[in-house]
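Work Package 3 (structural annotation) set out to generate three-dimensional models for the target panel prioritized at the project kickoff. During this period the team completed the workflow that converts sequence records into discrete structure tokens, so that structures can be stored uniformly alongside our sequence database. As a representative example, we reproduce one entry of 97 residues exactly as it appears in the project archive.
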Amino acid sequence: MKATVRIPTEQYGYIELEDEVVEIADAVELHNSASKEYWNSKKEKPGVPELEFSKIVDRYMTDGGSMLSAEYENLNPFQEYTIQCLKKFKKRAANKK
């Protein structure tokens, strides 16, 4: 049978894989190994230097939340999480006005 697995990569993004499997356990193993491989590759990313990240955050907070996608791609998981927290904060703050 054919198995399709989706590995979440961002809020609305994912990687989709299809493969032929014999049993459900094979599909679970496909998902687990692909997910592990993806997240391990994210951990190896060093991210941007602290000074550059501070500039990105400052610009994000003052320029109406603009950020280049190329900048976001270079962030490590902790830096991505920080930006997402700031994004949520700005959205909550805007709703309170």
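The chain has a mean pLDDT of 85.
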